[in-house]
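Figure 3 (text version): structure tokens given as input.
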């Protein structure tokens, strides 16, 4: 069972990272779990140039750190994607990452309203999303929760949870927010148990899921 976490914040010990760590705890209870976290702020990669070099092969032609990310996305059974809200949207690093996932899509050259994604076929992949905002209203998150969910659903991922956490600004302050931390871990458990139901090798565990 492979899970990829993608952190769109520059702060590796910030609120987004803390919530993602909580969501991964249930997976660590399994001896057949493997996971990796991508800190986008530590990666060297550019945004999509719209060159269409990926059109025939579903392989991006830009040679940078996204090539490793592509391998991890293809190998992952599930992803957990997190981003703070910057000006009613995801961070610039997360937006670059999402745009570079364009290469997973294929379009009919005569009618681009006809399209499919690489992950529409094969074993189902699942996703969970975590959005954070310093304000007190979900409206002030703007497009952050939607862009995360809609983008990865378009690639063929099925959404299991989309957690929204408000009124968090200082690095790590979410650790004192018991409800948010417990919800992140509960959401991670839900994602883990969904994967157990999906996997033929572990389907027998569905009647005795880890509490």
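Below: residues designed for each position.
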């Amino acid at each position: 069972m492979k899970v990829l976490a993608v952190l769109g914040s520059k702060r590796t010990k910030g609120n987004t990272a803390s919530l993602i760590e909580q969501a991964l705890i249930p997976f660590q209870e399994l001896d057949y779990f493997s996971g990796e976290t991508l800190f986008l702020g530590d990666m060297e990669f550019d945004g999509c140039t719209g060159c269409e070099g990926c059109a025939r092969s579903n392989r991006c032609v830009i040679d940078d750190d996204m090539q490793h990310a592509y391998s991890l996305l293809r190998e992952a059974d599930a992803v957990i994607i997190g981003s703070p809200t910057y000006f009613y949207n995801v961070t610039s690093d997360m937006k670059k990452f999402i745009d570079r996932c364009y290469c997973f899509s294929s379009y009919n050259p005569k009618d681009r309203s006809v399209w499919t994604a690489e992950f529409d076929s094969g074993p189902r992949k699942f996703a969970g999303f975590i959005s954070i905002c310093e304000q007190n209203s979900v409206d002030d998150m703007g497009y952050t929760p939607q862009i995360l969910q809609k983008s990865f659903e378009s690639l063929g991922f099925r959404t299991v949870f989309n957690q929204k956490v408000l009124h968090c600004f200082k690095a790590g302050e979410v650790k004192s927010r018991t409800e948010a931390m417990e919800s992140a871990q509960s959401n991670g458990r839900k994602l883990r148990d969904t994967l157990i139901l999906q996997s033929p090798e572990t389907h027998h565990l569905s009647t005795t899921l880890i509490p």
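Residues 203-211 have pLDDT under 50 and may be disordered.
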